[in-house]
Design brief:
Blueprint lengths: L23 E4 L9 H7 L4 E4 L14 H13 L4 E5 L11 H21 L3 E4 L8 H18 L5 E5 L12 H9 L3 H4 L2 E6 H7 L7 H11 L5 E6 L1 E2 L10 E2 L9 H8 L8 E3 L9 H14 L1
Parallel strand pairs: 1-2, 1-10, 2-3, 3-4, 4-5, 5-6, 6-7, 7-10
Antiparallel strand pairs: 8-9
Helix pairs in contact: 3-4, 4-5, 9-10
Length: 301
């Protein structure tokens, strides 16, 4: 099992004057308390970080206390991190046709939004749900649940719906389907919603980042709009192009390879978009992330 390394607030901190690569980072552990995550991000030289605000594989909810929020904000201000997002629970299914599961999912999703607002996070990443019965009905249920939650939980955290790999009955594996989901969210709430693109997911869904970099991003812009892109998850894929398998790998070790990530880091259209790793951690939660971030920054020079 990977061990969480205890770090000081300044250990490994990347100088704030160093801007190569823009806002880049990784998913960071909150073990021992959410305030421990900014110094852990500093330990790998991150300027962006993603966290869980609760255990993602359990329904048990928690509230962020004022003391926890204050400690987190103080630690964040002392760190080199300039963009922070959470990823919501893997159990949430806002598209479910089961009334009980959908109601439970909406309550859990609302709790995710509340924690993000309390902590002052920039974004919350959420997977579209599984339709289970009929795709169009599932998309409509998903959009309606998002609207309910946003109306009931006002705040500044931006919701980013993540493009998926297309396995089973999951929603949102094509640009067109994601655009359809977003269009069903009421106009007055839509400004609070954007998109997270995961490189592993879109490659597994059939978008060829190896041979058609410009085509993929031009298509994204035409269908969804680059102004909606709030975050990129940088992950290689253990599965082949179009495999529909959501299996992440270290950059350069999977089917995508290094070159597409170099293109992403050099693409001026994407220069200001935060980029976060969700690649395998290895044994110590530090070494692989440091190596991957060093590679990304070298690509951008």
């Amino acid at each position: 099992m990977a061990q969480v390394k205890k770090v000081t607030a300044t250990e490994g901190r990347r100088p704030k004057s160093e801007s190569a690569g823009g806002l880049v980072g990784a998913h960071i552990s909150t073990a021992g308390g959410v305030a421990n995550s900014p110094p852990r991000a500093d330990a790998i030289g991150a300027t962006a970080m993603q966290i869980f605000t609760k255990q993602p594989n359990r329904w048990l909810e928690c509230e962020i206390t004022p003391a926890d929020a204050s400690a987190f904000r103080d630690a964040l201000a002392k760190s080199g991190v300039r963009f922070t997002n959470a990823h919501d629970s893997y159990l949430i299914n806002l598209a479910s046709p089961d009334p009980a599961l959908r109601a439970k999912s909406i309550e859990s999703f609302r709790a995710e939004l509340r924690r993000c607002h309390t902590l002052g996070l920039d974004a919350l990443v959420s997977h579209p749900g599984n339709f289970m019965d009929n795709r169009a009905s599932g998309i409509a249920r998903n959009a309606d649940a998002i609207a309910q939650a946003l109306e009931q939980e006002p705040g500044s955290t931006r919701l980013l719906m993540e493009l998926t790999a297309g396995q089973g009955t999951v929603i949102g594996s094509t640009f067109e389907e994601m655009a359809q989901l977003l269009a069903l969210i009421p106009a007055q709430l839509r400004k609070r919603v954007g998109v997270c693109l995961d490189t592993c997911h879109v490659f597994a869904a059939g978008y060829d980042l190896i041979k058609d970099h410009d085509g993929v991003w031009s298509r994204f812009d035409a269908v969804i709009g680059l102004d909606s892109l709030g975050l990129i998850h940088l992950n290689d894929s253990k599965g082949a192009l179009g495999s529909k398998k959501d299996r992440h790998d270290l950059l350069g070790a999977g089917a995508i390879g290094k070159k597409p990530f170099e293109r992403i880091m050099r693409d001026q259209r994407l220069a200001k978009i935060p980029k976060v790793l969700e690649t395998p951690k290895g044994d110590d939660l530090v070494s692989n992330d440091r190596k991957m971030l060093k590679m990304l920054r070298a690509f951008s020079r």
